[in-house]
Design goal:
Layout (H helix, E strand, L loop, with lengths): L5 H7 L9 E3 L5 H4 L11 E3 L2 H9 L2 H9 L11 H11 L4
Parallel strand pairs: 1-2
């Protein structure tokens, strides 16, 4: 098992991504949610706490860009706020 190779690691232990029921997201930092947005997990529900979801939904595109400035260089231009919220809205568990 090695970091950054989630699909390979799951295969190594015999788990197919489409078999996962849900992914728990404690906080939606870009470097933490990338795999949840991967096509292999397109049908997997996302468990996102209501306060976290509300905070991200309150961000303006300008505030999001400022967050990206503080993130790792790989994150810039790879993901945007609409992509995060769109994927989350479609797959988020509402309780």
């Amino acid at each position: 098992m090695r970091g950054g190779a989630l699909l390979d690691n799951l295969a190594h232990v015999g788990i197919r991504p489409e078999r996962l029921d849900a992914i728990a997201i404690t906080h939606m930092h870009i470097d933490h949610i990338g795999w949840a947005l991967h096509p292999a997990f397109a049908q997997t529900r996302l468990r996102i706490p209501a306060p976290e979801w509300a905070w991200w939904n309150a961000l303006t595109p300008e505030e999001f860009e400022k967050l990206l400035e503080r993130m790792a260089p790989w994150a810039k231009g790879k993901i945007d706020l609409a992509q995060i919220l769109g994927a989350g809205a479609a797959r988020r568990n509402r309780q």
